[in-house]
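Technical annex, item 7. During the second reporting period the consortium partners agreed on a shared format for inverse folding records so that results from different sites could be compared directly. Each record opens with the tokenized structure and is followed by the designed sequence. A conforming record, contributed by the partner at site C, is shown below for reference.
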């Protein structure tokens, strides 16, 4: 199957494009799990704030709003206290500066700690805002996007791992990229959507493109969500946060980065968990199932009625080597380990949900007249997602009749992109990319369900793609023009 497309976009500066808008939202040694059998350039422009950081009313707080105005970026911060005194500071784009932020948030109405003063915000390249500094209760990036974008809706199946709908479009029609790497969930029912595999405190920026106007990446039909993770800085920097909330929710996250001007590294760890959430009448999962006359066989066993809704641990490591003044190598690894994720609206729960994302980027700048930047990128992502009836009455006494669906998704990709500056106001970007996606699922049964062992829930399928793209961009006094095209050759 061959697919080609092109896009034209004209966007007035200081105005929101009807087609393209940008928005932002905000362990090493991970233990094995029980039951485991196997293991740029921003899109413009918003006149309203792209990022707001606030704390409860009547408390000392720092309110920060990030704006983009033409080619200038600024962060306006106002420090309000109980006497309504106010101090305003505007920070424009500037060279890399340290950002050390310690914050404690409480979503139970308990008095929050006074917000720490933020160092000057770094805005460079495709970064739009410091998402990790936002007051987001959950590690779930989908929830953060939902809270910060009017045209993003949320599909909630559990207390975590929520999915998004962008302008009425959903599933794989929305392209999700983490540092340029594609990632797909393994569950056909979207219980592990791509946005669930990245933690908000690791996110530096999120760029949302509406419509099929991202020609640089394969599969962008209804929109693209490009996630940029945090990068290490020279020197020594740290960040620690604790969030607590309703239903015994808590999340602890820590980030440490440092190094020299030549070599820099970053390590980030987090743990998050929550009890079952309750409805407005105070009913937990079990009580809601009874109230809605859910089949007794689908309900949770008595010994598992008080299980936590989920537990989640993450790790991210990133190293940047500045080989020479114009050559840079970036290596990163992200791991997500979620255990015992309950899905009360389904007949099965996730024993675990594991993902691993590897990326490598090599950048050479100023090669000459025909290349201001040459980028070579490789990525590999893998998701394991076994769904089971272990905690349900349908599995029988001692779960002797348990049924498991082992699901796995993998994708590897490589891209070469060249950027050529025509003049100070325009440039051309072109390149080639290729990827292979594998999706596989197999049942395993015990007791009365032993007969399904080995039956395929999803056929072992490869999707291969080869694509080429070109895009021209020019800045005028009052608007920005982008022209692009892409051709893909796909086989399944």
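Designed sequence (site C submission):
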């Amino acid at each position: 199957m061959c697919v080609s497309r092109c896009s034209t976009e004209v966007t007035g500066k200081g105005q929101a494009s009807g087609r393209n808008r940008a928005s932002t939202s905000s362990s090493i040694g991970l233990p094995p799990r029980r039951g485991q059998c196997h293991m740029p350039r921003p899109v413009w422009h918003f006149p309203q704030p792209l990022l707001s950081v606030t704390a409860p009313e009547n408390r000392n707080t720092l309110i920060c709003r990030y704006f983009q105005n033409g080619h200038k970026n600024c962060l306006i911060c106002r420090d309000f206290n109980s006497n309504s005194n106010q101090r305003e500071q505007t920070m424009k784009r500037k060279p890399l500066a340290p950002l050390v932020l310690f914050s404690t948030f409480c979503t139970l109405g308990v008095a929050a700690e006074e917000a720490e003063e933020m160092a000057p915000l770094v805005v460079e390249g495709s970064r739009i805002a410091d998402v990790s500094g936002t007051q987001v209760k959950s590690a779930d990036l989908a929830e953060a996007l939902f809270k910060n974008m009017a045209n993003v809706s949320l599909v909630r199946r559990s207390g975590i791992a929520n999915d998004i709908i962008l302008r009425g479009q959903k599933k794989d029609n929305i392209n999700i990229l983490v540092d340029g790497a594609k990632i797909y969930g393994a569950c056909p029912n979207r219980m592990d959507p791509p946005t669930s595999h990245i933690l908000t405190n690791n996110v530096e920026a999120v760029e949302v493109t509406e419509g099929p106007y991202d020609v640089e990446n394969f599969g962008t039909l209804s929109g693209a969500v490009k996630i940029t993770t945090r990068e290490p800085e020279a020197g020594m920097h740290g960040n620690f946060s604790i969030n607590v909330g309703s239903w015994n929710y808590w999340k602890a996250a820590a980030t440490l980065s440092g190094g020299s001007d030549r070599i820099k590294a970053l390590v980030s760890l987090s743990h998050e968990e929550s009890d079952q959430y309750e409805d407005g009448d105070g009913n937990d999962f079990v009580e809601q199932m009874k109230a809605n006359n859910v089949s007794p066989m689908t309900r949770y066993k008595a010994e598992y009625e008080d299980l936590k809704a989920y537990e989640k641990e993450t790790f991210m490591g990133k190293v940047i080597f500045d080989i020479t003044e114009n050559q840079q190598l970036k290596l990163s690894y992200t791991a997500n380990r979620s255990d015992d994720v309950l899905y009360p609206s389904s007949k099965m729960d996730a024993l675990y949900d594991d993902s691993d994302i590897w990326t490598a980027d090599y950048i050479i700048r100023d090669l000459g007249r025909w290349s201001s930047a040459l980028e070579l990128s490789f990525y590999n992502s893998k998701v394991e997602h076994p769904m089971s009836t272990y905690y349900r009455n349908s599995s029988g006494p001692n779960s002797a009749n348990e049924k498991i669906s082992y699901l796995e998704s993998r994708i590897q990709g490589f891209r070469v992109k060249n950027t050529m500056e025509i003049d100070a106001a325009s440039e051309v970007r072109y390149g080639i990319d290729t990827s292979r996606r594998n999706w596989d699922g197999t049942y395993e049964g015990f007791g009365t369900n032993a007969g399904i062992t080995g039956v395929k829930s999803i056929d072992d399928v490869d999707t291969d793609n080869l694509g080429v793209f070109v895009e021209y961009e020019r800045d005028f006094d009052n608007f920005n023009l982008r022209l692009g095209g892409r051709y893909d050759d796909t086989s399944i």
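The first strand starts at residue 2 and ends at 12. Confidence is low (pLDDT under 50) at residues 1-5, 7-138. All partners now use this format for quarterly exchanges.
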